[in-house]
Amino acid sequence: MPELEQEYRLEHSPTLNTVLMVEDVLKKMDDSVITVAELKEKLPRKVNHNTLKIILEYLELSNKILMTIRGITWIHNTNPNLRKAIAEGMEL
After folding, report:
1. Which of 19, 38, 40, 87 has the fewest beta carbons closer than 10 A?
2. Where are the domains of the chain?
3. CA 25, CA 42: separation in Å to the nearest integer?
4. What is the torsional sign of CA 45, 10, 16, 83?
5. What's the pTM?
6. Shortest CA distance to 22 belongs to which of 34, 38, 10, 39?
7. Are strands 65-67 and 72-74 parallel, antiparallel or unpaired?
8. 57 to each of 8, 72, 80, 81, 88, how far by Cα in Å?
C-alpha cells in the first residue's frame, strides 16, 4: 500500500477553489469541445500548466470530462431522469 500513497503524493497540489473554478468553466462552456489553450484563456485567473494537467487528470478519472486528441468535453450529467433511465434501462 505504501506504493499507492506515493503515487498520489505531489510537490504542489491544486487548491479546491482552483479545481472548482476549472470545473465550472468546463461545465458552462458554449462549445462541445475545448482545447487546453482555449480553457486557459477562459479561466478567470491564471493556472500553472502542471496544476491544470493534474486537475484535468482528476476530472477525467472521476468521469466528469473526456480528453481526446481534439480537446476536452464535459460528460458528467446530474439529471436524475437520465440516471434512472440508465439504471433501469434494457440492455440491447
Report:
1. 87
2. 2-88
3. 7
4. positive
5. 0.77
6. 39
7. antiparallel
8. 12, 11, 26, 28, 30
Residue 32 near residue 73, CB atoms below 8 Å: yes
C-alpha closest to that of 72 among 55, 91, 50:
55
pLDDT in tens, 43-58: 999 999 999 999 999 9
Residue 67 pLDDT class (50, 70, 90 cuts): very high
Q: Helix, strand, coil shares of the chain as percentages rounded to 5?
A: 50, 10, 40
Query: What is the residue type of 67?
Result: M
Instruction: Give Cβ neighbours of residue 29 (< 8 Å, ≥ 6 apart).
Output: 42, 74
Q: Which helix (H) or strand (E) holds 74?
A: strand 72-74
| The residue count for the chain | 92
The angle formed by the CA atoms of residues 68, 69 and 75, to the nearest 5 degrees, is: 20
